[in-house]
Every structure is written in C-alpha cells, then in structure tokens.
Design brief:
Number of domains: 1
Helix content: 55-70%
Number of helices: 5
Strand content: 5-15%
Number of strands: 2
Strand order of the largest sheet: 1-2
Order of helices and strands: HHHEHEH
Structural class: mainly alpha
Shape: elongated
Largest sheet: 2 strands, antiparallel
C-alpha cells in the first residue's frame, strides 16, 4: 500500500471515485487485460498505468492520478499481476541504473571501467 499521504488523499477523494467508476463503465465493466486475452472477467479495480507515486511533485501526481488515459480497468487478478510485473521491472531498472552510475563514476575518477 502507498506511503504517500498525498496519494492516499487523492484516492479517497470523490473525484477519484467518480473517475474510477467512469473507467470501469468505459469498458462496460469488463477487465481490459482479460478481454485482450480472449477471457471475460469483471473489472473490479482501476490501475494507474504510470504509477502516481513515480513522481514526487504533488501537482504531477494529481495529473497522473486523474488522467483517464493513465487508467486501465482490471479484475483483481490482472491488477495484482500488473503490480508484480511493474515492481519486477523497476528493480531490474534500478540495478541497471546503479551499474551505469558506478561505471560513470569510475570513468570520471580513474578513466577506466570497474572490472
């Protein structure tokens, strides 16, 4: 669950509840992922494609939270899978960036790659 008080406040707003309902109605109550894979499941949750907490600026967080193009109506299972994939990717991405940072530092300090 989120740790950001600003994000929690956004998701507890009337505006979010209305937008969430509109996103589900837009898909006629069906999970977008299941539909794309030829299955039929009820959409019970709405997923932010680009995570709202991926940014720190409260104004940009709000834009991401309420952007209909950033929403995907999903069933519970697909929503859980989306978050698992999202976190897996972000861990791998963080490791890659850390390795690049170390290599850049070594080049700047020693003129060589760290190997």
């Amino acid at each position: 669950m989120s740790r950001s008080p600003h994000y929690i406040k956004l998701l507890n707003s009337r505006r979010w509840r209305a937008l969430r309902m509109a996103a589900i109605k837009r898909t006629k109550g069906l999970c977008e992922q299941c539909s794309a894979e030829g299955r039929i499941s009820a959409a019970t949750e709405v997923h932010h494609i680009r995570p709202v907490e991926s940014v720190k600026d409260p104004i940009v967080m709000e834009q991401l939270a309420f952007d209909p193009a950033n929403l995907k109506a999903l069933c519970h299972r697909c929503h859980q899978e989306a978050h698992l994939l999202m976190h897996k990717g972000s861990n791998e991405e963080r490791r890659r960036r850390t390795k690049e940072d170390v290599e850049r530092f070594h080049r700047q300090m020693f003129g060589e790659d760290p190997e």
